[in-house]
Design goal:
The protein is mainly alpha-helical. The protein contains twelve helices and no strands. It has one domain.
């Protein structure tokens, strides 16, 4: 029977030379490991600090975008408020009250100033705001011509007023609504630009790398834990947890803001715009003298918008105005145009204009409160990410030194 020859054993000298070669290579491995771990710690610290500053920049962008939305909403309100005042004053036959004229001038001046501020704040809006400013100048000039003719009792004054008002409520609102849409999209995008997972990822990868380095050293030096690498791991964990906590807190605050005061700001501002547009439609109905069906239809649509947007605390003042409006509409529908105009221009308690002014005043106060809440939420606490970034940087440097020192001790022992 044929016997299979056993394979020859390697010579003792060959095995010994391999072990010696591997042993001599360990210092080179440790040197490379020390450099690699140190670079890993520095990279993680840099990425974490960078993510924190990017998050802070996103919060600053969100604040700027939200402020721009508030500016555009303010412009829209001031424009429609000016139109509501001008059209209501027109019903008095040119004998408008001083206070009403002053309020109109203030609304026009405020709109012009806010357009300039908005243009400076956001370069992307400048072309649309320049056109809106030109429209505002044109509107004010048209209203002055309408007033002059109205004081002289010339019917052409109504034509000038309707043309100016139609331009403002047409192209003017197209521009403001486009600006609102663009800035609202920017604001929501900035508010959503917080990513805790991306902040956590470098630290998690670093902890995995430190674990692998510790295991490699443990298998060769019979020590389960390398103190330096363990300290580096602890510091990495701390800086990662701190950075994730800051990013998560900002993301949560932004979500709460969108559902809370920022959402309320948008709703209340739109409600005030629709309310002033409705008041203007009321006056334009009477100015049209029997041909104002379209303005009454517009009033109904705008009134419905207001009812769906205002908080419950303002429903009673709005109801008081709508009842006063219904009373003047009833007179106009019955053929008593003079009586309807008298109700529209009356300053007596319960009349349409005082009721609307009361509602508008309360709505403006609500709007100011929401704007202050949004501003406070977005601009307070900006120092926290900076502080955590500084601490993360220091922790990263500490982790770098600890990991370097931990591997160096094994290298010194081996040598």
């Amino acid at each position: 029977m044929t016997q299979i020859a056993a394979s020859p054993r390697p010579a003792p000298g060959l095995v010994e030379s391999r072990e010696i070669a591997q042993g001599r290579a360990i210092p080179a491995y440790l040197t490379r490991l020390r450099l690699g771990v140190a670079l890993l710690m520095l990279t993680v610290a840099t990425l974490t600090v960078g993510q924190l500053f990017l998050g802070r920049a996103a919060a600053n962008r969100a604040a700027a975008d939200a402020e721009q939305v508030a500016r555009i909403q303010t412009i829209k309100v001031d424009l429609l408020r000016a139109d509501a005042l001008a059209t209501n004053a027109f019903l008095t036959g040119g004998l408008e009250a001083t206070a009403q004229r002053t309020a109109y001038d203030q609304a026009i001046g405020a709109a012009s100033a806010t357009i300039a501020a908005a243009s400076s704040a956001q370069s992307l809006d400048r072309d649309a705001l320049a056109e809106l400013n030109a429209l505002l100048v044109r509107y004010a000039a048209g209203m002055e011509v309408a007033r002059a003719n109205n004081r002289l009792g010339l019917p052409v004054g109504a034509a000038y007023l309707r043309a100016a008002s139609a331009d403002l409520r047409g192209r003017g609102m197209v521009l403001t609504d486009a600006l609102l849409t663009a800035n609202t999209v920017r604001a929501r995008s900035s508010l959503a630009d917080q990513h805790p997972m991306w902040v956590a990822l470098p630290g998690l990868l670093a902890l995995g790398g430190l674990y692998a380095a510790n295991r490699w050293i443990a298998t060769r030096f019979r020590r389960r834990i390398n103190v330096g690498i363990a300290v580096a791991g602890g510091l990495t964990l701390l800086l990662t947890l701190g950075a994730v906590a800051v990013s998560s807190a900002q993301a949560l605050e932004n979500t709460r803001l969108q559902d809370g005061s920022y959402g309320a700001l948008l709703r209340v501002a739109q409600a005030r715009s629709s309310a002033n547009a409705a008041k203007s439609s009321e006056s334009l109905r009477l100015i049209a003298r029997g041909s104002g069906k379209s303005f009454e239809e517009a009033w109904a649509t705008q009134s419905k918008d207001v009812s769906g947007l205002i908080p419950d605390t303002l429903r009673d003042p709005w109801t008081a105005y709508t009842k006063a409006h219904a009373a003047l509409v009833a007179k106009d529908d019955a053929g008593d145009w003079d009586g309807a105009v008298a109700l529209a221009t009356s300053t007596a308690a319960g009349a349409a204009t005082p009721a609307f002014q009361e509602f508008d005043t309360q709505l403006a106060a609500e709007l100011d409160g929401d704007r202050a809440s949004v501003d406070s939420a977005l601009n307070s606490g900006n120092w926290v990410p900076v502080l955590v970034a500084v601490l993360a940087g220091l922790a990263g440097l500490g982790a770098t030194w600890a990991s370097w020192r931990g591997v160096s001790r094994r290298l010194e022992e081996y040598v």
